[in-house]
Specification:
Elements: H1 13-19, H2 21-33, H3 43-53, H4 59-85, H5 91-107, H6 109-115, E1 117-121, E2 127-131
Antiparallel strand pairs: 1-2
Helix pairs in contact: 1-2, 2-4, 4-5
């Protein structure tokens, strides 16, 4: 079966999650939000890199773990939506969905506490999250 996104290659795990132009666009956008560069990886190489580099509970490590899972989930969900429901989203819509998943995870009070995120109110009455670096 060809890739449901680009139709340019056979759908493999490496292709759909890393090599496809849709996937690589999402990874690049996600990494650039965090000041990082994404290089096309295979599934195994990416998770070897993640296991070696994203250790501990630093805010960047935690966000990248959540964000990577959100991206993989979004790609798989979009694949199934296109395949089984004949509906599709743009790459921009998919990226918004990823950011919403990350925000939802940070909105959960237990998850915020685990991540060391604390809600505060600024002078204009708007809530924002600060990161407790000792968490």
């Amino acid at each position: 079966m060809n890739c449901i996104f680009c139709v340019a290659a056979v759908e493999t795990r490496d292709h759909i999650f890393f090599e496809c132009t849709v996937a690589s666009s999402l990874w690049s956008a996600l990494f650039s939000l965090n000041g990082l560069q994404f290089k096309h990886h295979s599934w195994d190489a990416f998770f070897d890199l993640a296991a070696a580099c994203w250790k501990g509970k630093s805010p960047l490590t935690t966000i990248m773990k959540i964000a990577s899972n959100a991206l993989i989930y979004t790609i798989w969900k979009e694949r199934n939506k296109r395949l089984f429901q004949s509906q599709s989203s743009t790459v921009a819509e998919m990226f918004i969905a990823i950011k919403e998943l990350i925000a939802d995870k940070k909105e959960d009070p237990k998850e915020r506490a685990r991540l060391g995120l604390h809600s505060k109110q600024n002078r204009k009455g708007r809530h924002f999250f600060s990161i407790a670096l000792n968490a």
